[in-house]
Amino acid sequence: RIDLPGDVTSVAKARRYVRVLLANIAHPRADDAVLLVSELVANAIRHSDSGRLPDGTVTVTLSEPANGILRVEVVDVGSSAAEPRARLDADPVSEGGRGLYLVDLLADKWGSHLYDNGRVVWFEISAHDT
User: Fold this and answer.
1) Are 100 and 39 in contact (CB under 8 A)?
2) Of 24, 26, 22, 48, which Cα lies nearest the Cα of 36?
3) Which residues of 53-72 are buried (b: 16+ CB within 10 A; e: fewer)?
4) Any idea what DSSP says for residue 98?
5) What is the pLDDT averaged over residues 108-129?
6) How many angstroms separate the CA atoms of 15 and 17, rounded?
């Protein structure tokens, strides 16, 4: 688990954290996990109070793979925004709007839920290609 400040520099820190942890266990889909955590941390900073409040934070947690399945959770400090959803209607020339679409495409499962004063967005990937 790593707690990060709610600013854009935390996206690279989260990627590095996940890459190092997964290199230690030689997870075959480490690149997918790194990409997806990058998207979720960026979304948490962009769309929640984690990035709006001066003391906002984002927490990234990786669970020890069980039966070849890795679970990653990104916790933000909440917002009044709607439930996260994958957008299939992103403008083809837009630089944004595809993060959760990538999560939906690459993760075996993903979802979100409210917790205390925040939101958890999680994904699971197996050690095998989907």
Assistant:
1) yes
2) 22
3) eeebbbbbebeebeeeebbb
4) -
5) 89
6) 5
What is the spatial distance between Cα 98 and Cα 86, in angstroms, rounded to a whole number? 7
Angle in degrees, CA 94, 97, 100, rounded to 5: 150
Report the amino acid identity of residue 34.
V
Polymer length of the chain: 130
Whole-structure pTM value: 0.87
- Alpha helix ranges (H) inside 26-127: 30-47, 49-52, 99-106
* Residue 86: per-residue pLDDT: 56
Eight-class DSSP state of 82: P
Name the residue type at position 59.
Answer: T
Between CA 2 and CA 50 the distance in angstroms is 14
Under 8 Å between Cβ of 32 and 124: no
Tell me how far apart the terminal alpha carbons of the chain are, to the nearest angstrom: 26
